[in-house]
Automatic annotation (TrEMBL), chain A:
Family: Belongs to the complex I 20 kDa subunit family.
Domain (NADH:ubiquinone oxidoreductase-like 20kDa subunit): residue spans on this chain: 22-133
Top-level taxonomy: Bacteria, Thermotogati, Thermotogota, Thermotogae, Kosmotogales
Cofactor(s) needed for function: [4Fe-4S] cluster
Alphabetized InterPro entries for the sequence: Complex_I_20kDa-like, NADH_UbQ_OxRdtase-like_20kDa
NCBIfam families from the UniProt entry: PRK06411.1
Protein name, as recorded: NADH:ubiquinone oxidoreductase
GO molecular function annotation: 4 iron, 4 sulfur cluster binding; metal ion binding
Keywords: 4Fe-4S, Iron, Iron-sulfur, Metal-binding, Ubiquinone
UniProtKB/TrEMBL annotation, chain B:
A GO cellular component annotation in the UniProt record: plasma membrane
Primary location group: membrane
Membrane topology (UniProt): Multi-pass membrane protein
Cited PROSITE patterns: COMPLEX1_ND1_2 (PS00668)
Keywords assigned by UniProt, alphabetized: Membrane, Transmembrane, Transmembrane helix
Matches recorded under Pfam families: NADHdh
Signal sequence segment: none
Protein name from the UniProt record: NADH dehydrogenase
Subcellular location, record wording: Membrane
Chain ranges passing through the membrane: 6-25, 72-93, 99-124, 136-156, 162-185, 248-268, 280-299
Amino acid sequence: MGVYNRILKKSLWVFHMSASPCNNCDIEVLDLLTPGYDLERFGIKLVGSIRHADVLLITGVGGCKVAERVVRVYNQAPKPVFVVAVGTCPIGGATFKDSYSRCGPLDELIPVNLYIPGCPPKPETMIEGLLKLLGRLE
Amino acid sequence: MIAIYTLLFPGLVFTAFCGMIAWWIERKLSALFQHRVGPPWYQNFIDFFKLLGKESIVPADSAGIMYSISPLIAFASVVAFATILGSAVFLKLEIAGDLILLLYLSSLVSTGIFLGASASANVYAAIGASREIKMLLADELVFVMVVLVPVVKSGFSFRLEAVLNTSAITSLSGVIAYILGLMCIQAKLALQPFDLPEAETELAGGVEIEYSGVLLGIWKLTKAMEFFIYPLFLSVLFFGIGKGLVGILLSVLFYLITLIILVIMKNVNPRVTIDKMLNFFWKVLSPLALIALVLALFGG
Ligand code: SF4
């Protein structure tokens, strides 16, 4: 597994899924791909289909409608796949903590490998988090 | 010998290596266009090896056998294309009627993509497949006429050797046909403005949306090899291969210019819709290609 992980570390394809966020986190995630931050230099690329992805990036609180879709998308991903939860929402619910439509926290639905807290987290934090994930794959 | 030609030198390994590098040039130049740093040169190799280690999923309601062999069809035709073209270019070996065979193999790649996408039982893949076949219908006629121009210039010979010894680009009809050929290659490589079948932002990968793991890796390898051989095909068709060191350097330079023009076209154009693309190829480019062909016939 050692050699393969070292390869995987340098080429992470990310599939971004919104599980009922307030949309701020999504905007910050999109920021990552703009010229200012340029994740392609680490080999990180945003892909359109979960079948191509190595990382499932989830934002949001996990509303009841979307919770079952999250599980379905996770099951459709080719393994090995890593789950990264962005924002305070997947952890504690942030503003939507007491909402009647909340079926989270996320780690009750699917296993989460990495949390990136913040409401919303800064792009720098997300880069640091992803690079931590790269170190953690060892 | 044939096994070595196919697997090693002008065929699989060599073309795959050059194709990954050509694709990296595309990614790096695109990054520079957008004021980014871009990936390191080995990025495509790493992507490919990573895909080999992933799980390969065959969707439950897809046509399983077709789904799994159509990447191999496309891959095999690309390898055959690379071997025939590479033997003629690098080793001066040729077989009879090879130009016709090359045209046939290039459309077989699109057919493979079409079959794979329609077998995967996904609506986005189905849209991608229909666009792929429409694009094939649109660009094939123009491409055939473009290829006929150097054939006429070399004295009506369909053998690659004769075509490689004449440089058609020095005449007016050659220049027109070369520019039209660039657009056909753009469509065959599915780069913007003709990236309709893949359309990452619209169809989420389109034709290859359901593919994962090894099969996706084969698609990516096929695409990388196409990146090397189509510009090579176009540049040797029109420039030929120079004699001596200077001539060879000029040929390499011409190949690089062809590749870079393709990348620049990719970066300055947005995606067009399928009807605009069809209109453009049928109503604008086909008459132009015919004019170029007639010009060439009259020695222009
Ligand atoms: S963490 Fe904050 S910014 Fe992000 S989706 Fe939740 S509420 Fe919005």
